[in-house]
Amino acid sequence: MSPAPDTQTALASLRERLAEIADLGAVEMLLEWDQLVMMPSQGGESRSHQLAALARIAHERATAEEIGGCLAELEGADLDELERDIVRVARRDWERARRVPAELAAEIARASADGQEVWQRARERDDFAMFAPALERNVALARERGECLAEQGQSAYEALLSDYDYGLTVADLRRVLGGLAEQLPALIDDAERHSPERGLAVPVEAQRAAVAAIMARLGVEESSWRVDVSTHPFSTWIGRGDSRITTRYDDGDVESLLSSLHEYGHALYDRQVDSALDRTNLAGGTSMSIHESQSKLWENHVARSAAFAQAMAGELTAGGFQVSAEDLHASLVRVKRSPIRVSADPLTYPLHIVARFELELALIGGELVVAEVPDAWQETMRRLLDVEIDSDAQGCLQDVHWSAGAFGYFPSYALGCLIAAQVWEALEAELGPREEDLREARVEPIQRWLRERVHRYGRRLDTMPLVERATGKPLGIDAFLRYVAPLAGR
Amino acid sequence: MSPAPDTQTALASLRERLAEIADLGAVEMLLEWDQLVMMPSQGGESRSHQLAALARIAHERATAEEIGGCLAELEGADLDELERDIVRVARRDWERARRVPAELAAEIARASADGQEVWQRARERDDFAMFAPALERNVALARERGECLAEQGQSAYEALLSDYDYGLTVADLRRVLGGLAEQLPALIDDAERHSPERGLAVPVEAQRAAVAAIMARLGVEESSWRVDVSTHPFSTWIGRGDSRITTRYDDGDVESLLSSLHEYGHALYDRQVDSALDRTNLAGGTSMSIHESQSKLWENHVARSAAFAQAMAGELTAGGFQVSAEDLHASLVRVKRSPIRVSADPLTYPLHIVARFELELALIGGELVVAEVPDAWQETMRRLLDVEIDSDAQGCLQDVHWSAGAFGYFPSYALGCLIAAQVWEALEAELGPREEDLREARVEPIQRWLRERVHRYGRRLDTMPLVERATGKPLGIDAFLRYVAPLAGR
User: Fold this and answer.
1) Closest CA of chain B from A231, distance in Å
2) Pairing mode, if any, of strands B225-229 and B235-239?
3) Closest-CA residue of chain A to B220
4) What local confidence, expressed as pLDDT, does residue A3 receive?
5) What is the 3-state secondary structure (H, E, C) of A131-146?
């Protein structure tokens, strides 16, 4: 039996609106990609206007009264499973978008732009006082926004988390991040004793050749991918058949291999969402932490494996830089504590996130005032990582997130590491160890398993239910601890 | 005295709406540029959806009731000169956009997409019958649209002309294109006798080096320009500080130099519009024919000059291809009649346009039926150019325009040649002969003159008034005839 005529009309109208919102989102992605990869530097001011126009129209469409009308008509209607998910997530998105007053959203956008601008200068000059007023404004606005979004019993911070990971609770985070804070320090002490003194320095030309060859072996072909260079590597999905990743090259390291595998993981996730979800509200990754888990899976469990190092060393050698798989692997799993998050190794990295989580939770909760952030940062980094912070530029000014008003984003980086480890264990438990395949850079079985167990759902499952469905267990830290143990020689 | 409060509000609201329409237009340009230059081939379907969403929203904004409200409030208001132009052109655009019913516009868009698709296959198979139904549909829809747009006393075709060249009349076209049909054939006979047997064939690498060097000498620097490669060269203006041109390279010719100068001319026009017009309805070129005149000026009067050939020959030689300025110049002004428009020389080119003008005027007017197009094409080409058409693929199927529903566009190509010659004469009359500067690729005085006399007006002046203002004369063919005479050895 097909649905009643009114239901059909409402569903068709809702889907048409959601398709337009999806198309506008894709256009926005393209503008941002172009800005970071192709745009001449003087085009920035025009681009801001173009992005602002799109954001305004997208917000207008996302909060349209008519969506509410369709949703009311579809309440309790007889729908199939996919339709029910579309309607459920549409209601969630629509209600969240409408809970934030337009003036507040506009003020947040301005504060974010201003904040990033002043942050950049403050970081250059190592001048926290210069940044403090912008940070205060961002904290106050984020708190206000969190209060608008909070559901029964939620704190403002928890409501902000839902921007990135719907359904995640502060209690979840305290449990897993608290566990990491307890377990990792001893492992780090051991690992530093086992790690080589310094990393590899590979000429850019050899890195380029190896990245191109490895990407080709992973199925990156030019009819549906682009691989470019940008200051900060990123991945973007413009639409079916149009995946774009970037990497960067530096003679002093071999980071391009890690970062291209990382971005490949993000891109593969978007590509492997069920095509039936294209241009609905369910396309794309379900959350920041699942997205990050997919990039970390390829970075930590593929690129940093001893087996895959053989394939990569072969390509670097073919590209003119003679290196053994053992030396390459040792360099990629080298552990060394440092004040800087973005260059941290897989073992110390999560503690950088624990620190940020503790601090931003206290900031939004009002227990930490902005003026005390530098001291609190130093104290936290000392406690968690036994690292001394010599300057705010290398400390609490190092990341862009808070300057842009993004609070609640950091945890997804650590959750990504944990989920990646748990997913990888489930994958190997079912497919068997991957060593043999990875030595030859054969990844089709991995791609297929990920599509089936993780990717295809898109936004139909939120973070926690998806982790349970894919791995058969709730999210925990054990798999991650088993992954990092060998780095500590255990 | 500043305007009354209601006037101020209406003007501010109108300008805000026009700015948004301009921003959306820029976004559309970027999507099209990306599609032709960067997009992986499989991204086409998603891109169509994205472009359709933008077109729908842009049409909605351009026809908004609220614009009518602002315009009514501003009727007879006390405005400065720029404001009066903004309001005048806003009324024109708004009324034209609203005269075409949304269903007709949507049907035209579909017919255009379908038409291009079937045209491509029909051209490959040299099968006009396959294309005929799509052409019939396009002609009927264009006629219907022309009838919606026609003002008092205008034919449907003349109304369509206004899409590309507002204010241009069929009588204007008959006068100038008729004059060309009369004068050019004898010149072509003479010129063919003087022309070298074959053109130059320059290796791609030398062309690349020369194009890069010449563009740099013309002020194309990477902070506000991009130069890329695409199948068909084009120019696009994404916004202030973001000009993008493309060229193409073929070992068998030296076309990349001409085409890059041509596209440079388009780009320079957009760049040199008064920045006070940015994000208003007056930014960008005023018409297709003025735009084409700016590209033709750089292609015909700079790139094809004996003086500039010295600069280009120097760069080709530096790029590894030894050539004399004389040989290069002779190759660039070589006249040879052919059935194909896009590769035609400056002397025969306008007659290709005269043929298309005669035929499309008759098609829209109903005097020519689609089934008779192939015969009419052959007869017209024989009469005007003394060229035999062996196949429809090399005849009436060669151009994309009619398949996309673009009728009234072709004339701008010929007008561009005429206007370029007339503008160049005015420029040299004022600045003196350019030979000495062009030998050294010094073009700043040309750029400055063009900015002052042509570019800065944007859409404030329509085609004919702008020609008169810039050159002191109404549009005619004499300057063009003086330009081509030397090609015929006269």
Assistant:
1) 16
2) unpaired
3) A40
4) 64
5) HHHHHHHHHHHHHHHH
